[in-house]
Design a protein that fits this description.
Helix content: over 70%
Structural class: mainly alpha
Radius of gyration: 30 Å
Number of helices: 3
Distance between the termini: 87 Å
Oligomer: single chain
Number of domains: 2
Length: about 100
């Protein structure tokens, strides 16, 4: 196995070339062509974006991750508050229900 890998490295010193799915691998489905075109369009938009590969992008992404974590904690806390409120309301309602049942 290692011998095969060494041969490939010798044959392609700059790295193994990327295969074209249509030409090299013979994939000819209509849906695949559409998918490849869409990927190319989105990659062009991504690379053309002013934030692509900038330190600002990395900083903003870290802030976004931090924001989502905080948002999730807030969501969990709101569930806990709702649960406590429901329990308090239930405990307040039990004596009322008991009084109605005993009459």
């Amino acid at each position: 196995m290692q011998i095969s890998v060494d041969e490939v490295v010798k044959k392609f010193p700059d790295g193994v070339p990327l295969l074209d799915a249509v030409k090299d691998m013979g994939i000819r489905e209509k849906g695949f062509d559409t998918c490849v075109k869409n990927i190319k369009k989105f990659e062009e938009r991504l690379y053309a974006h002013p934030l692509h590969n900038t330190d600002e992008c990395k900083r903003l992404y870290k802030l976004y991750v931090k924001k989502t974590k905080v948002s999730f904690k807030i969501f969990q806390s709101s569930l806990s508050v709702r649960e406590y409120v429901n329990n308090i309301l239930f405990l307040c309602a039990v004596p009322l229900i008991y009084r109605c049942m005993t009459k």
